């Protein structure tokens, strides 16, 4: 059952997956539990490295990847998992009081909101392809063994951006200086950190205003 993913270990056949899309990683994690996986959305670029922490629950291993792609992972109620997103279509009519709303009660709590939300992460992608300078062509003695010398150059600006990625969002409704920094739980690139900062800012804003 899908709820077993919350309480039980990931039980993956390996500690990390290389060059996999989100739905492929989720399928591998869910396979031992007999759960099927289908995606209703484009989950974006593959993860260069999708790691699973020691003793991490299956749901935690899935959720951290879904968060970086702004995806929702839900049970379909019939033994499967669906990867989807929140709907973008608005209701056909507005809620009005008096009108189609008989009564309403609201809760407003801004304690979880921040003026600036920053998500930082790092990736091994850029460092995986070092820049190698040609070996020295200095003339050597015939009797001496040939030595090829290669020197790895320092990372370029573009490579440094790939190693360290940052996403930032501003909540205009929070005027006091109240920043927060989140660390990406998976290998992060520009897409992951931008999606992560959007989610980290939007979720507290949605929870701050609850109506019944």
How is this structure best summarized?
By secondary structure, the protein is an alpha+beta fold. The protein has five helices and twelve strands.
What does this structure look like?
The protein is an alpha+beta fold. It has two domains: about 5-85, Baseplate protein-like domains (Phage tail protein beta-alpha-beta fold), CATH 3.55.50; about 110-130 and about 150-210, 2-Layer Sandwich (Phage tail proteins - 2 layer sandwich fold). Helices cover about 25% and strands about 25% of the residues. It is built from five helices and twelve strands. The chain has helices spanning about 5, 20-30, 60-70, 155-165, 190-210, and strands at about 15-20, 35-40, 45-50, 70-75, 80-85, 105-110, 115-120, 130-135, 150, 165-170, 180-185, 210. The strands form five sheets. The chain has a three-stranded mixed beta sheet with strand order 2-5-4, with helices on one face. A hairpin with a 4-residue loop joins strand 4 (about 70-75) and strand 5 (about 80-85). The longest helix is centred in the C-terminal third of the chain and has 19 residues, at about 190-210. The two termini are about 30 Å apart. The model is unreliable at about 125-140 and about 145-150 (pLDDT under 50).
């Amino acid at each position: 059952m899908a709820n077993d993913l919350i309480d039980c270990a990931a039980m993956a056949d390996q500690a990390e997956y290389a060059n996999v899309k989100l739905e492929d990683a989720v399928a591998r994690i869910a396979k031992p539990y007999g759960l099927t996986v289908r995606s209703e959305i484009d989950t974006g670029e593959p993860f260069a490295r999708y790691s699973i922490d020691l003793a991490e629950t299956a749901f935690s291993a899935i959720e951290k990847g879904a968060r970086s792609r702004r995806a929702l992972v839900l049970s379909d109620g019939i033994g499967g998992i669906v990867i989807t997103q929140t709907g973008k279509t608005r209701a056909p009519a507005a809620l009005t009081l008096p009108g189609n709303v008989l009564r309403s009660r609201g809760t407003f709590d801004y304690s979880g909101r921040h003026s600036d939300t920053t998500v930082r992460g790092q990736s091994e992608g850029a460092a995986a392809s070092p820049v190698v300078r040609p070996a020295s062509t200095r003339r050597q003695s015939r009797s001496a063994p040939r030595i090829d010398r290669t020197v790895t150059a320092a990372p370029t600006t573009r490579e440094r951006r790939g190693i360290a990625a940052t996403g930032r969002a501003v909540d205009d409704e929070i005027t006091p200086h109240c920043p927060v920094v989140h660390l990406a739980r998976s290998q992060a690139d520009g897409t992951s950190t931008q999606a992560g900062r959007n989610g980290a800012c939007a979720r507290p804003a949605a929870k701050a205003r609850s109506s019944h």
